[in-house]
Specification:
The chain is an all-beta fold and 109 residues long. The protein has one domain: Jelly Rolls (Sandwich). The strands form two sheets. Strands 1-2-9-4-7 form a five-stranded antiparallel β-sheet, with no helix packed on it. The chain has no helices and ten strands.
Length: 109
């Protein structure tokens, strides 16, 4: 099942720039929201934590990355990942997605 738009609940989604092959967005997730397990076929997700902390989990390799304000992390194409805030407050991050055609391939828990 492919979800090319990546529909999931987020408090805020703001697109800062979008051209063919590249997108820059700011997302805010409340404490009960997350970006579910998924991967992208050809693009890298580069996260920049603006308000944290936040956690990015990956599979193969199975890792947990905690980002604080100002921290960055790049998730390579094909790497299954999950994003959530840590604690009782919202997290906010900028995400640069590219270079390539955007897709969102959900993975079951």
């Amino acid at each position: 099942m492919n979800n090319p738009k990546g529909e999931y609940e987020a408090t805020q989604r703001e697109t800062l720039a979008e051209v063919p092959g590249l997108r820059v967005r700011v997302l805010t997730l409340n404490k009960d929201q997350n970006v579910p397990w998924h991967y992208h076929s050809t693009i890298t997700d580069t996260f920049f934590c603006m308000r944290g902390p936040m956690r990015i989990l990956t599979r193969n390799p199975a890792m947990s990355h905690t980002l604080y304000n100002g921290d960055t992390l790049a998730v390579d194409p094909g790497t299954v990942h999950y994003v959530e805030g840590i604690g009782d407050s919202a997290c906010q991050f900028m995400i640069v997605q590219g270079v390539g055609e955007y897709d969102y391939v959900p993975i079951s828990d």
